[in-house]
Design brief:
Layout lengths: L1 E3 L2 E3 L1 H7 L1 H14 L5 E7 L27 H8 L1 E4 L2 E2 L5 H8 L5 H4 L15 H8 L3 E6 L22 E2 L8 H18 L6 E6 L10 E2 L4 E2 L37 H30 L5 E7 L18 H4 L3 E4 L8 E3 L4 E2 L2 H10 L13 H4 L10 E6 L3 E6 L2 E7 L9 E2 L5 E2 L11 E9 L17 H16 L12
Helix pairs in contact: 3-8, 7-8
Length: 493
C-alpha cells in the first residue's frame, strides 16, 4: 500500500493512479541496468516493526511503539522508499536470522538453528557469492554473529567473514558503544568511495539489543525499582493490551517478574535505544545523499523484542512482537517513494534475492527468497507468494498466510544437532518430507491476524477452524518441509 498526503490506497489502486508519475522512474530503471547501483544494507538487532514514528497512520492504537519515540531519520527513509509492514524474520533469534538474511536459505539449511555456530560451509554467504559472480567491492562493519561464538568479525584469521573485507570495530560489548563506531566508519566509507566498480557495504548495528541488559536474568530480580523512579508519568508507554491473556500455548516463556510499572519503564528505555539507532542511520543516509550515483538502501532487523507483549521479553517467540521486523528499501529515482506496502508477505530470506537482482547476478542454488525489486520499482505487479514461513526454538514452525498465522512445535530432543524425536524416542536431524514421523506438541496456535492483530485469541481447538488448520498444516508439509535441505554446521573459534 502507499500513503501519500494522508490518503491510503491499495497497491492495485496505487499502480493505476501513479502510472504517469512513475513513467520517468521506469525509464530510469531501464537506464540504470547499464550501471549497477551501490548497495548499503543496515541490519539492527531486536527491533520491532512498529518502532518508526512515520508509521503512526498505520499503527493507530496508542500502545504501538511509533507513538512513543522520535525517529526523524528512519522517517526520512520511509518517505524515500517502500516500507513492508508484513515483514517476517526467518527465525527470530540472532544467529539463525542473520544466516538467513545473508544466504537466502532457511536456518535449518544454513545449519544455524541456535546461536554461536557458523554457517554450513556448503552454503555461500552474500559476500562469497558476489565475489564469485561479480565485481562488487564487499565490505562488512559491525555485528555479524553468524560465524561462531563471537559477534564482530576481524580483518583476518578464523574470525574473518568469508567473502567480505572487514572494517574493524573496537567497542564490542554493547550497541551503546559500538554502533557509533559502525555508523561513522560506514559513513566515511560511503562518502569517500571512488572506485569504478560498485560497492556493497553492510552496517551491523547492535541496538536495541542492549535492552537484554535491563533485567538481571538468572537471579530472579531486575535492575530497576518497581516504581516510577524518575517521575516520568505520562511519558511512560502503556502496558500492551496483550500483556495478560488466557489461551493454551505449545511453549511457555512468559516473564512474570515485572509489575505494570516495570513493563512501562522497560518499554520506555527500549524506545530510547531505538532513537539512538535513528542517529546512527542518519549519518549513513547523509553519506549516501552526498554521492552522485545511485545507492540502494536496505534496512531491516534480525528479529523483534517481546516488550511485555504476551508477557515476553527478548526473542525466540512465535508472536508478531518477535517475528515481525522493519523492512525498508530506498533509492530515490530508481523506485517508488513514500509507499507503505501492507499486502505482500516478505521474509529475511528475500534480502539475498533482492541484492542479487540489483547486482545483476544469479541467485544461489536453492535460494528461498524472492527479489523485492518488482514490488518497489513501480513496474507491473508480479505474482507473489501467498504464505511465508519461519522457524524458531530448534523445532518450531510458523506459516503466515494473508489472514492467518499458524504455529506448531515438534518435541525437542534437547540435542541441537539431532533435535527431532521419532516415535520410539530416537533423536534425529530433520529429513525433508518426514514431518509426520516426528513427535510433536499437540497444541497449536492459530490467529486471525486481520481481526486479532494483538494475537489474544487462539483459534486452535475451535471446530469452525478445523479446515483452516488442516490447510496450513498442508502448506507447512508440502510447500516447505518437503523442500528444505537440512545443513550441518561448523564452529568458528
Amino acid at each position: 500500500m502507499t500513503e501519500r498526503q494522508g490518503v491510503t490506497l491499495n497497491r492495485r489502486s496505487f499502480m493505476k493512479t501513479s502510472a504517469a508519475a512513475l513513467g520517468a522512474t521506469a525509464a530510469s530503471v531501464a537506464r540504470a541496468d547499464t550501471k549497477r547501483p551501490n548497495i548499503l544494507i543496515i541490519v539492527t538487532d531486536q527491533q520491532n516493526m512498529d518502532t518508526i514514528a512515520a508509521l503512526k497512520s498505520h499503527y493507530k492504537e496508542p500502545a504501538w511503539g511509533c507513538h512513543w519515540l522520535r525517529t526523524p531519520n528512519l522517517d526520512r527513509l520511509v518517505k524515500r522508499g517502500v516500507t513492508f509492514t508484513e515483514s517476517h524474520s526467518a527465525n527470530p533469534v540472532c544467529c539463525p536470522a542473520r544466516s538467513a538474511i545473508f544466504t537466502g536459505r532457511m536456518s535449518i539449511e544454513t545449519g544455524i538453528t541456535y546461536n554461536n555456530i557458523g554457517i554450513d560451509q556448503n552454503v555461500p554467504n552474500m559476500g562469497q557469492w558476489l565475489e564469485e559472480h561479480g565485481d562488487y567491492t564487499r565490505v562488512y562493519c559491525g555485528k555479524w554473529h553468524a560465524g561462531g561464538q563471537w559477534n564482530y568479525p576481524e580483518v583476518s584469521g578464523p574470525r574473518k567473514i568469508p567473502g567480505f573485507d572487514t572494517m574493524p570495530v573496537g567497542a564490542r560489548d554493547t550497541g551503546d558503544a559500538a554502533d557509533y563506531e559502525v555508523s561513522s566508519a560506514v559513513e566515511a566509507f560511503v562518502r569517500n568511495y571512488r572506485e569504478p566498480n560498485p560497492f556493497l557495504i553492510v552496517a551491523g548495528l547492535m541496538n536495541p539489543h542492549d535492552i537484554c541488559f535491563w533485567p538481571d536474568w538468572g537471579k530472579d530480580k531486575v535492575t530497576t525499582a518497581p516504581t516510577d523512579t524518575f517521575n516520568l508519568g505520562d511519558a511512560l508507554p502503556p502496558v500492551p493490551p496483550n500483556n495478560v491473556y488466557n489461551f493454551r500455548e505449545p511453549k511457555g516463556g512468559r516473564y512474570t517478574k515485572f509489575n505494570a510499572m516495570q513493563w512501562r519503564n522497560y518499554a520506555y528505555d527500549y524506545y530510547r535505544m531505538i532513537e539512538k539507532i535513528d542517529g546512527d542511520v542518519g549519518r549513513m543516509l547523509n553519506a549516501v545523499e552526498s554521492r552522485d550515483d545511485p545507492t540502494i538502501i536496505i534496512f531491516t532487523s534480525d528479529h523483534g523484542e517481546g516488550l511485555g507483549r504476551h508477557s515476553r521479553v527478548s526473542k525466540w517467540h512465535p508472536y508478531d512482537e518477535s517475528v515481525k521486523v522493519p523492512f525498508i528499501i530506498s533509492c530515490p529515482g530508481l523506485m517508488a517513494e513514500d509507499v507503505l506496502d501492507t499486502d505482500h508477505l516478505v521474509s529475511g530470506v528475500d534480502v539475498m534475492a533482492t541484492v542479487c537482482d540489483y547486482a545483476s547476478v544469479p541467485q544461489p542454488p536453492h535460494c528461498r527468497g524472492l527479489s523485492l525489486r518488482p514490488l518497489v520499482s513501480g513496474d507491473t505487479p508480479t505474482p507473489w507468494r501467498e504464505h511465508v514461513y519461519a522457524e524458531m526454538q530448534h523445532t518450531g514452525r510458523m506459516v503466515r498466510t494473508a489472514r492467518y498465522k499458524f504455529v506448531k512445535f515438534y518435541r525437542f530432543s534437547k540435542k541441537p544437532d539431532k533435535p527431532f524425536l521419532l516415535a520410539d524416542g530416537t533423536a534425529t536431524q530433520f529429513v525433508p518430507g518426514h514431518g509426520a514421523d516426528y513427535q510433536d506438541i499437540p497444541v497449536r496456535l492459530l490467529f486471525d491476524m486481520k481481526k486479532d492483530p494483538w494475537e489474544t485469541r487462539n483459534l486452535w481447538g475451535d471446530p469452525r477452524y478445523a479446515d483452516i488448520l488442516a490447510e496450513h498444516e498442508r502448506i507447512l508439509r508440502g510447500e516447505y518441509e518437503a523442500k528444505l535441505i537440512p545443513g550441518t554446521h561448523f564452529d568458528r573459534n
